[in-house]
Amino acid sequence: DAKTTQPPSMDCAEGRAANLPCNHSTISGNEYVYWYRQIHSQGPQYIIHGLKNNETNEMASLIITEDRKSSTLILPHATLRDTAVYYCIVDRAAGNKLTFGGGTRVLVKP
Amino acid sequence: NAGVTQTPKFRVLKTGQSMTLLCAQDMNHEYMYWYRQDPGMGLRLIHYSVGEGTTAKGEVPDGYNVSRLKKQNFLLGLESAAPSQTSVYFCASSYGQYNSPLHFGNGTRLTVT
């Protein structure tokens, strides 16, 4: 199973873009990159996922490098409500049994 | 459309007591999962199910049992609770095996004294 590496924490100014990096150098060809976030005391919330192409939805954009060894989640205009722990996860080839690691604790400051 | 609903939200048990956590989803999802989250840590998979009548072990299955008698429900049982099982338990569901995001409930906070 591919593992991911994320910085433990980062700060972001309200209204600015937040760029969250993730390294997944051992990813295999059929594994997707998923991003979730967990706001304090709540269940994790799905944000976005992709295989090799860049993806965008109403919440965020996902940029995956051409070699697929790393990705970046972009929150275009961070708000205080975006303060959360963000998890980058690679889907196991054997099925959708996602493993959540430590994640990045993002603090959006006014 | 309620999504994934977990009951109860909170529970306190004494060591050796038993209980069942209920997870219900109304999205007609095939796959369901139970995770636990300990303070300051990520989520660890306990058990999962790939369809009605099936269950399988995850990363930390010891001390837990599960059942999936109906497609919409996934039960997590603790036969003899231990303090090490104090945790927040999250249930999740997904439509398929690949390319299918998880939808989570809001958790059950369990304390075993």
Topology record:
The complex is a heterodimer of chains A (110) and B (113).
Chain A: E1 9-13, E2 18-23, E3 33-38, E4 45-50, E5 55-56, E6 61-64, E7 70-75, E8 84-90, E9 104-109
Chain B: E1 4-7, E2 10-13, E3 19-25, E4 31-37, E5 43-49, E6 56-57, E7 65-67, E8 73-78, E9 87-94, E10 103-104, E11 108-112
Parallel strand pairs in B: 2-11
Antiparallel strand pairs in B: 1-3, 3-8, 4-5, 4-9, 5-6, 7-8, 9-10, 9-11
**Beta-strand content estimate of chain B:** over 45%
Structural class of chain B: mainly beta
Gyration radius of chain A (Cα, Å) is 13 Å
End-to-end separation of chain A in angstroms reads: 39 Å
* Amino-to-carboxy terminus distance of chain B: 36 Å
The biggest beta sheet of chain A is recorded as: 5 strands, mixed
Structural class of chain A comes to mainly beta
Number of helices of chain B: 0
Percent of residues in helices of chain B comes to: under 10%
Query: What share of residues of chain A is helical?
Result: under 10%
Write down how many β-strands of chain B occur, each being a DSSP E stretch of 2 or more residues.
11
The coarse silhouette of chain B is: globular
Overall 3D form of chain A: globular
Which chain pair shows the most residues in contact? A-B, 23 and 28 residues
Number of helices of chain A: 0
> Which runs of chain A of at least 5 residues are low in confidence (pLDDT < 50)?
none
Helices and strands of chain A, in N-to-C order? EEEEEEEEE
Q: Can you count the beta strands of chain A?
A: 9
Structure description:
The complex is a heterodimer of chains A (110) and B (113). With 110 residues, chain A is mostly beta strands. Chain A has no helices and 9 strands. Chain A is globular. The mean pLDDT of chain A is 90. Chain B has 113 residues and is an all-beta fold. In chain B, strands 2, 4, 5, 6, 9, 10 and 11 form a 7-stranded mixed β-sheet that branches. A 4-stranded antiparallel β-sheet of chain B has the order 1-3-8-7, with no helix packed on it. In chain B, strand 9 (87-94) and strand 10 (103-104) form a beta hairpin. The radius of gyration of chain B is 13 Å and the shape is globular. The chains are: A mainly beta (110), B mainly beta (113).
